[in-house]
C-alpha cells in the first residue's frame, strides 16, 4: 500500500478555508513561523537560541532608545542651530516661563548625545550580527529586503555623523532629530508590516475619504451662508468646514448646534440632522467598516501566503515521492522535514529502532523532533480551540499521508498532547492526595478566602484616629494570614517543580512573592512599634499598605475557574501579537507626530498664556509640545477626542488658526484607524473563542468519540 499526494494550493480551496477566520489565520501564521524559523532541526538549536537572544536584546535597546528621548532637552532650548536661529541668544538653557512635563528630568546635552551614539553603534553591531546569523550577504544578492537593510544602515550612519559633527560645533543634531523616529520603525519587523498595512488601508479608502470631505465642504458652505451672522463657528467657510469635521468626532455637538438657534427658531436642527445622517451615520460608519475590512483582508492575504509557504515546504515537487505505509498513525512529510511520527503506541526505543532501520529510505525525525512539532499543535489547540475539521485541514497542510480511518477526535487530541495529558492527570492526582491543596483548589473555598482576605486587608488600610495605638492589633492577623498563603505555596513546591509552577501558575508565584514582602515589612513594622520608633513604623506601614493592596491579585486564581474569564484570557492571549503591532504603530506615529509638531510649535505655550482667553481653561497650558514628555501627554489627549476643538485651539496658540485642522487630522490615524481596528478585532476574536467553547462543551455532553474519515481529504 502506498500513498502519493498531488495537491496544489492553487487548486485546493479547502486549504484556504484556514485563512477565512481570524482565529485560524493566527493558527496558520503560527505554524508558518515555526516551520520557517526553526525548521524543527536539532542541528540549528544553537542558532535558534542565539536568534531569540538577539531579538530580546534588539527589542530592549530599541525600547530604551525610544524612551530616553523624554529626557532630552527640547529643540527650542538650543538657540544656535542651523535650522532654528535666534540672533539674540546663543545659550541652550530652557526658558522656565514655558510649560514642561518636568524640567528636572532633562539630561545634560553632551551626556545625552553620547548615549545616542552608543545606541547607534549598538544598532549597527546588531545588524551585522543579524547578517552573520542568517548567513546573508549584502553584496551577492540584491532584493527588497537587502535594499531595506542598506537604508537602515544609511540612516544609522547619517544620525551618527550628524551627532558627532554637532558635538564638535556645539549645535543641535537636526538630521538625527527627524530620522530617529523612522529608524525605530524600520528596525522592528512588526512595525514595518503594520505601517505597510495602515498606509495600504489609507490608499484603498481614498475615494470614500474624499467623498466624506466633499460632503463636509458642501455642508460647510451651506452652513456659512445660513449661520455666519449667528455663530462664530460658521463665520468663514474654513471655520464652518472645520466645525463640521469636529462634529464627526461627536465632540461638543450641542455647543456647535445651539449657537445657531434663535429664541423662536429651532429649525437649524434639521441641518445638523441631515448632515450627521449622511456623513456620520452612513459614510463615516462605512469608512470605519472599510478600515477593518481592509485590515482583515491584509491578514487574510498574509495567512494565504503562509499556507502556500508551509504547503511548499512539505509538498515541494522536487521532493514528492511515494511512501510505503508502515503504520496507520503517522504523519509523512517531504525529505526536507523527513517524517513526523504521531504514534502514541510506540515507545521511544521502537521509534529510534525504526530510524536506524530506515535510515535514508524513509528519513524519520527522531522522537525529540516529533514531540516538538506535536507540542506546537497542542499549544495551538489550547490557544485557539481547534475542532476536528481544523485538525484535518492542518494535518493536510503539513503533509499527512497515513490512514486514520479509525481515528476519533479524542485519539488525535491524545496523540498531540500525550505528555501534557499525563502531566494534567499527575497534577490532579497530586492535588487529590494532598488535602491542603484540594481544599485550596475548591471554588467556594477560593471565594471565602478572597472575602476574608478583603476584610483583613481593610483592617490595615482603614485610617484610625490613633494609628500607632491600634495598628499592632491588626498587624497580627495580617501576619498570620500571610503565613497561611506562604504555607500554601510551600505545599505546592513540595509536590511540583518550581519551574513548572512558574510556567503554569505564574499568578500563584507572584502572589507568593507579594506575601513574602508583606510579611517582612509587617514584621519590621511590628518591631519598630514595640521599640517606639514611630517614624520608621509609619514609613513601613505606608509601604505595607501598597503591597497589601497588591495582594488582591489572588482574585485571578478565582476567576480562572469560570469559563467567561477563560474566554477573556484566551482572547487577550491570542491577540497579544496583533495588539503589540497595532499599539507599537500608534506609539511610533506619536513619535513622528511629536517630532514634527515640536519643530513647528515647540516653545510657544507658556505657563500663563491662556489666562486672558476665557474660551481656553488655563490648565490647558499643560497640553503642549514644548518637550517630548508633554508631547506624549498631548497626543493621548487628542486620541481620547474629548474637547478636541478646545485642545486644537490651545495648541494653535501663537500660530495660524489653520493649525487647528493639522491637530484635528491627528484623529484620523490614531483613533479612527488604529483604535477602531483594535476594538473590532478584539470583538471578533472573543466571539470566535466563545462560540468554539460552547461548541466543544455541547459536543462533550453528547459524545467525544466522533469518527474521522481521513479518506475524504484526498478525494
Features:
single chain; 715 residues; mainly alpha; two-stranded antiparallel sheet; 28 helices; 68% helix; globular; disordered C terminus
Distance between the termini: 17 Å
Secondary structure category = mainly alpha
The average pLDDT is 76
Q: What is Rg?
A: 32 Å
Total beta strand runs:
4
Sheet with the most strands, sense and barrel status: 2 strands, antiparallel
**If strands are numbered along the chain, what order do they take across the biggest sheet?**
1-2
Number of helices: 28
Helix content: 55-70%
What is the overall shape?
globular
Can you tell me the residue ranges where pLDDT is under 50 for at least 5 consecutive residues? 1-7, 317-369, 701-715
Strand content: under 5%
Can you characterise this structure?
This protein is mostly helical. The protein is built from 28 helices and four strands. β3 (330-332) and β4 form a beta hairpin. α3 packs antiparallel against α4, α5 (144-169) packs antiparallel against α6 and α24 (563-601) runs antiparallel to α28. Residues 1-7, 317-369 and 701-715 have low confidence and may be disordered.
Amino acid at each position: 500500500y502506498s500513498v502519493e499526494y498531488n495537491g496544489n494550493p492553487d487548486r485546493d480551496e479547502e486549504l484556504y478555508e484556514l485563512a477565512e477566520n481570524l482565529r485560524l489565520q493566527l493558527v496558520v501564521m503560527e505554524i508558518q513561523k515555526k516551520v520557517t524559523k526553526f525548521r524543527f532541526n536539532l542541528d540549528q538549536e544553537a542558532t535558534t537560541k542565539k536568534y531569540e537572544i538577539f531579538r530580546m536584546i534588539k527589542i530592549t535597546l530599541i525600547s530604551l532608545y525610544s524612551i530616553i528621548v523624554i529626557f532630552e532637552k527640547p529643540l527650542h532650548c538650543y538657540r544656535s542651530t542651523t535650522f532654528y536661529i535666534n540672533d539674540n541668544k546663543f545659550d541652550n538653557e530652557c526658558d522656565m516661563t514655558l510649560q514642561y512635563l518636568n524640567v528636572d528630568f532633562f539630561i545634560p546635552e553632551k551626556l545625552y548625545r553620547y548615549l545616542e551614539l552608543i545606541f547607534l553603534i549598538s544598532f549597527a553591531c546588531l545588524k551585522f550580527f543579524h547578517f552573520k546569523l542568517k548567513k546573508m550577504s549584502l553584496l551577492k544578492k540584491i532584493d527588497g529586503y537587502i535594499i531595506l537593510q542598506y537604508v537602515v544602515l544609511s540612516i544609522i550612519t547619517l544620525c551618527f555623523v550628524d551627532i558627532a559633527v554637532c558635538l564638535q560645533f556645539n549645535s543641535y543634531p537636526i538630521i538625527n532629530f527627524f530620522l530617529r523616529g523612522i529608524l525605530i520603525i524600520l528596525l522592528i519587523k512588526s512595525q514595518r508590516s503594520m505601517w505597510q498595512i495602515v498606509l495600504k488601508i489609507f490608499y484603498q479608502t481614498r475615494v470614500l475619504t474624499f467623498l466624506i470631505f466633499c460632503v463636509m465642504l458642501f455642508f460647510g458652505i451651506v452652513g456659512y451662508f445660513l449661520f455666519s451672522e449667528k455663530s462664530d463657528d460658521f463665520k468663514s467657510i474654513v471655520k464652518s468646514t472645520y466645525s463640521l469635521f469636529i462634529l464627526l468626532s461627536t465632540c461638543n455637538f450641542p455647543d456647535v448646534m445651539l449657537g445657531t438657534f434663535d429664541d423662536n427658531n429651532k429649525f437649524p436642527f434639521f441641518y445638523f440632522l441631515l448632515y450627521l445622517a449622511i456623513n456620520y451615520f452612513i459614510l463615516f460608519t462605512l469608512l470605519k467598516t472599510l478600515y477593518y475590512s481592509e485590515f482583515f483582508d491584509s491578514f487574510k492575504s498574509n495567512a494565504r501566503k503562509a499556507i502556500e509557504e508551509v504547503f511548499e515546504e512539505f509538498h515541494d515537487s522536487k521532493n514528492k515521492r511515494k511512501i510505503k505505509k508502515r503504520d496507520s498513525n503517522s504523519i509523512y512529510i517531504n525529505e526536507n522535514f523527513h517524517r513526523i511520527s504521531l504514534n502514541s503506541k510506540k515507545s521511544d526505543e521502537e521509534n529510534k529502532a525504526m530510524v536506524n532501520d530506515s535510515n535514508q529510505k524513509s528519513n524519520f525525525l527522531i522522537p525529540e523532533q516529533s514531540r516538538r512539532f506535536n507540542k506546537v499543535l497542542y499549544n495551538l489547540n489550547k490557544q485557539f480551540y481547534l475542532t476536528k475539521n481544523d485538525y484535518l485541514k492542518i494535518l493536510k497542510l503539513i503533509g499527512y499521508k497515513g490512514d486514520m480511518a479509525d481515528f476519533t477526535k479524542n485519539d488525535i487530541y491524545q496523540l498531540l498532547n500525550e505528555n501534557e495529558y499525563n502531566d494534567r492527570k499527575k497534577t490532579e492526582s497530586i492535588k487529590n492526595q494532598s488535602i491542603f491543596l484540594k481544599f485550596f483548589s475548591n471554588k467556594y473555598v477560593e471565594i471565602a478566602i478572597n472575602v476574608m482576605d478583603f476584610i483583613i486587608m481593610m483592617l490595615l488600610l482603614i485610617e484610625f484616629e490613633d494609628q500607632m495605638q491600634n495598628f499592632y492589633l491588626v498587624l497580627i492577623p495580617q501576619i498570620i494570614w500571610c503565613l497561611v498563603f506562604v504555607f500554601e505555596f510551600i505545599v505546592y513546591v513540595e509536590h511540583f517543580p518550581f519551574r513548572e509552577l512558574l510556567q503554569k501558575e505564574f499568578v500563584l508565584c507572584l502572589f507568593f512573592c507579594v506575601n513574602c514582602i508583606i510579611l517582612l515589612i509587617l514584621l519590621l513594622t511590628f518591631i519598630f512599634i514595640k521599640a517606639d520608633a514611630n517614624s520608621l513604623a509609619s514609613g513601613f506601614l505606608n509601604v505595607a499598605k501598597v503591597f497589601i493592596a497588591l495582594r488582591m491579585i489572588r482574585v485571578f486564581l478565582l476567576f480562572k475557574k469560570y469559563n467567561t474569564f477563560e474566554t477573556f484570557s484566551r482572547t487577550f492571549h491570542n491577540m497579544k501579537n496583533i495588539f503589540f503591532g497595532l499599539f507599537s504603530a500608534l506609539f511610533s506615529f506619536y513619535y513622528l507626530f511629536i517630532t514634527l509638531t515640536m519643530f513647528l510649535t515647540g516653545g510657544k505655550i507658556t505657563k500663563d498664556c491662556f489666562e486672558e482667553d476665557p474660551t481656553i481653561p488655563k490648565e490647558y497650558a499643560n497640553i503642549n509640545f514644548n518637550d517630548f514628555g508633554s508631547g506624549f501627554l498631548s497626543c493621548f489627549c487628542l486620541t481620547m477626542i474629548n474637547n478636541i476643538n478646545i485642545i486644537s485651539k490651545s495648541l494653535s496658540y501663537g500660530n495660524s488658526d489653520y493649525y487647528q485642522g493639522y491637530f484635528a487630522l491627528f484623529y484620523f490615524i490614531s483613533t479612527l484607524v488604529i483604535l477602531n481596528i483594535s476594538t473590532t478585532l478584539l470583538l471578533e476574536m472573543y466571539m470566535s473563542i466563545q462560540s468554539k467553547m460552547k461548541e466543544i462543551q455541547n459536543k462533550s455532553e453528547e459524545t467525544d468519540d466522533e469518527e474521522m474519515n481521513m479518506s475524504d481529504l484526498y478525494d
